[in-house]
Amino acid sequence: MTTSPPAEPPTSERLDDFEQELDRLKIKGGDAEPERRLVAVGFALILISFVWLFVCYNGSRGAEDPREQTDYLVLALPALLLGIFGVVMWARYTLTRYLRYWLLRTIYEERAQTDRVVGAIRGGAPSE
């Protein structure tokens, strides 16, 4: 059984025109590295908040005086807010990356479909 090399995506005039227009406008693609770092920072904030909350929980269990327990509760509130902020940051940048990929894939597939339809219309039209 022989395997053939993967087929190159079909090029079209419209795609070439689009690439030339992008070159003319000097539009650069975005760098994905800052988003990856921000996803990692969001995840790290979540982990830090879990550790902080765990420490506050264990400290409050050992405290006999209700005022000491209240102190640990007050210390736990910033940890809770830090965790919520980390979840929001992680979700925002993770969804941004996924939706950007989805949008580019949809655009590419729609252009390829349009090129196939145009090719079928041009090739299938009876000559007069």
Question: Any overview of this molecule?
Answer:
By secondary structure, this protein is mostly helical. The chain contains 3 helices and no strands. The longest helix has 59 residues, at 66-124.
What's the gist of this structure?
This protein is mainly alpha-helical. The chain contains 3 helices and no strands. Helix content is 80%, strand content 0%.
- Counting DSSP H or I runs of 4 or more residues, the number of helices is 3
Q: Please trace the helix and strand order, writing H or E for each element.
A: HHH
- CA radius of gyration is 27 Å
> Helix- and strand-based class?
mainly alpha
Give the helices and strands, then pairings:
Elements: H1 13-25, H2 33-62, H3 66-124
Please give a handful of descriptors for the protein shown.
128 residues, mainly alpha, 3 helices, rod-shaped
